[in-house]
């Protein structure tokens, strides 16, 4: 039986960073995709995360199967909550096969959204015009996004938004449908302007490893204009591995690098930054989750 360190090395994953000064959450991750693409099991991902002080994670679904997995993982693991949705690219693909199939999938999201307090968010939903380029796909994404907004409101859940080249459509649909009480812009991909437009509605901006990339000056400008209480951190693992490990696969334990980067950019010490991020994650996902926020245990 190999140690976790050996296991990470054998899968080509980066080593464990030094433990953080205080516990934080990875506010958006995909342990099922990490297992499929990298080979690290969800249990191993959680163990690696816990070792470096990433005590909680939000497991995010992108299709029916992934949303069911998220619900189950959160139901059976302390420190895990779920987000459920049909990803905009999956919505476009499903509708292209059969509009009825998309409607059924969204019904299942609605059912899972009501599964209990371990399901905290509807997401990731939104607009992706990078991978879906045709007008019909765009129309389907806007409709599916509106349906997810309605589900989030009906269940009093947080809305976790995926936005890839979709800023205007996202704001347009949110304005038309009305913003839910809690909105997270996951893997925030805009600059200071978009940040301000989202902050007007008290959204949280969640920064992934991208913010550490040399090319990400706009995201760093967004970070600079975001009030500290609106900042979240995430991996979106297995993608978007932060510097200095860029180019390797990602896991929730590597969110430690992004958290340290954020602390440095904000000019605050690591412990204060971790506490801030942890409190923010609890607020963004409805509070009362886990121990660090003083909320009741679920
Ligand atoms: Zn996404
Ligand atoms: Zn994601």
> Could you say which structural class the secondary elements and strand pairing correspond to?
alpha/beta
Helix fraction bin: 40-55%
Number of strands: 8
Helical stretch count? 12
Task: Determine and state the CATH class.
Answer: Alpha Beta
What general form does the structure show? globular
Number of domain modules: 1
Report the average pLDDT across residues: 95
Strand content: 15-25%
- Strand order, main sheet: write it out: 1-2-3-4-5-6-7-8
GO molecular function: DNA nuclease activity; hydrolase activity, acting on ester bonds; metal ion binding
GO cellular component, one term: cytosol
Organism: Acidipropionibacterium acidipropionici
Pfam family, one: TatD_DNase
Give the secondary structure arrangement, pairings included:
Layout: H1 4-10, E1 24-29, H2 31-37, H3 42-51, E2 54-60, H4 64-76, E3 80-84, H5 88-97, H6 99-113, E4 119-128, H7 135-155, E5 158-164, H8 167-177, E6 183-185, H9 192-199, E7 204-207, H10 217-225, E8 231-233, H11 255-266, H12 270-284
Parallel strand pairs: 1-2, 2-3, 3-4, 4-5, 5-6, 6-7, 7-8
Helix pairs in contact: 4-6, 5-6, 5-7, 6-7, 7-8, 9-10, 11-12
The protein binds zinc ion (2 copies).
């Amino acid at each position: 039986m190999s140690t976790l360190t050996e296991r990470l090395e054998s899968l080509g994953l980066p080593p464990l960073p030094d433990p953080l000064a205080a516990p934080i959450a990875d506010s958006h991750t995909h342990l099922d995709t990490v297992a499929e693409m990298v080979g690290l099991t969800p249990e191993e991902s959680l163990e690696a995360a816990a070792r470096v002080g990433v005590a909680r994670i939000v497991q995010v679904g992108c299709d029916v199967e992934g949303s069911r997995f998220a619900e189950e993982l959160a139901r059976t693991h302390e420190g895990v909550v779920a987000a459920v949705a049909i990803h905009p690219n999956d919505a476009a693909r499903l509708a292209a096969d059969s509009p009825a199939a998309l409607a059924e999938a969204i019904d299942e999201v609605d059912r899972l959204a009501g599964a209990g307090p371990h399901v905290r968010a509807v997401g990731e939903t939104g607009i992706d015009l990078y991978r879906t380029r045709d007008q019909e796909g765009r129309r389907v994404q806007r409709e599916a996004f509106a349906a997810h907004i309605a589900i989030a409101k009906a269940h009093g859940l947080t809305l976790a938004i995926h936005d890839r080249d979709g800023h205007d459509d996202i704001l347009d649909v949110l304005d038309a449908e009305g913003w839910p009480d809690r909105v997270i812009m996951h893997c925030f991909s805009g600059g200071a302007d978009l940040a301000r437009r989202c902050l007007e509605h008290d959204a949280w901006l969640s920064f992934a490893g991208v913010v550490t990339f040399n090319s990400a000056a706009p995201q760093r400008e967004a970070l600079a204009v975001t009030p500290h209480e609106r900042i979240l951190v995430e991996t979106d693992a297995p993608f978007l591995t932060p510097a200095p490990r860029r180019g390797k696969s990602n896991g929730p334990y590597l969110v430690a690098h992004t958290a340290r980067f954020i602390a440095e950019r904000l000019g605050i010490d690591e412990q204060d930054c971790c506490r801030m991020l942890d409190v923010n994650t609890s607020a963004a996902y409805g509070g009362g989750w886990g121990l660090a926020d003083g909320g009741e245990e679920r």
